[in-house]
């Protein structure tokens, strides 16, 4: 741990990068996966369990927390870390994506966005300055600029307009953030699926000399090959010595292929959301525990895992819980999935350190392709 935000790039293996972010609240080993704690909770999980899976950092959501319990209340209660009993780093997103995707009524202009709460219909205004203010009240360690995220496909002129707006908002966010020792603000590269716009966005953000850079707008319904091509175009423009965060991504396959291209940080609701719906991610690929084939299978999801949910509970029991709509089913599968994601990240980091990432990636994908155990 250090008093200041510091990123150290320890080793590269082809495009993959092994590093470490040091902050007052702890060290983040990269490549890192950040479980999503949208409203101050990683759904269906105790945060002690989240930590035990290997998570160094979690994500909180500005939009949801500003609506309830409100950022001001969180600040009065001592900040988000104290409120939720998580002593380690927290990254908060800016709220921009949720404003664009969840609010039924919104009006966007140069000053920011006025939107209607999906909770109670109340009107709110989010400017770049207000987004940074809220993240400061929450006490987050890594704060994201407010940006405009356009769902793909979209018209090129609309993508360019949103990208340019996001650049201007990044400058305002930097001013609003000011100097906060031990904390960081990241910019967000936008530009949709247009390489020239992505490159321009990355070049202009780099001039702001921020502590880190995210790639946004690539978890909005586009095919994987579009995402990977945009990373190929964008990442060479970003500073080598700064961390790179791919927002809202993704599946284990997305993560492996994005690490290969130079991404250091990820977040996604997929492991917990999938777990609540009966889908498990395993080293043998995806397993739908709702399927009848598991009804009398007393084998665990993964006998080699260190996670109790993966190793100690039978598929038959998990199948029963999920089919009976028991909350424990979603809890155990969320626990399993988060543990699998962190085991994958640990394997990635070890492989890069030993200079064998390409081999690790090939073997991991080969095991996924072989599929699950044969039915009993």
UniProtKB/TrEMBL annotation:
Gene3D superfamilies in alphabetical order: Queuine tRNA-ribosyltransferase-like
Annotated region described as RNA binding, given as residue ranges: 248-254, 272-276
Gene Ontology MF term list: tRNA-guanosine(34) queuine transglycosylase activity
Signal peptide location: none
A Pfam family assignment: TGT
Keywords linked to the UniProt accession: Glycosyltransferase, Queuosine biosynthesis, Transferase, tRNA processing
Span of domain tRNA-guanine(15) transglycosylase-like: 15-369
Catalytic activity, reaction form: 7-aminomethyl-7-carbaguanine + guanosine(34) in tRNA = 7-aminomethyl-7-carbaguanosine(34) in tRNA + guanine
Active site: 93 (proton acceptor), 267 (nucleophile)
Annotated metabolic or biological route of this protein: tRNA modification; tRNA-queuosine biosynthesis
EC number: 2.4.2.29
CC annotations in GO: cytosol
Keyword Lyase attributed: no
Binding site for substrate: 93-97, 147, 190, 217
Function: Catalyzes the base-exchange of a guanine (G) residue with the queuine precursor 7-aminomethyl-7-deazaguanine (PreQ1) at position 34 (anticodon wobble position) in tRNAs with GU(N) anticodons (tRNA-Asp, -Asn, -His and -Tyr). Catalysis occurs through a double-displacement mechanism. The nucleophile active site attacks the C1' of nucleotide 34 to detach the guanine base from the RNA, forming a covalent enzyme-RNA intermediate. The proton acceptor active site deprotonates the incoming PreQ1, allowing a nucleophilic attack on the C1' of the ribose to form the product.
NCBIfam families referenced in this protein's UniProt entry, alphabetically: Q_tRNA_tgt, tgt_general
Family from the record: Belongs to the queuine tRNA-ribosyltransferase family.
Subunit structure comment from the entry: Homodimer. Within each dimer, one monomer is responsible for RNA recognition and catalysis, while the other monomer binds to the replacement base PreQ1.
PANTHER family linked: QUEUINE TRNA-RIBOSYLTRANSFERASE
Record-given protein name: Queuine tRNA-ribosyltransferase
Organism of this sequence: Rhizobium aethiopicum
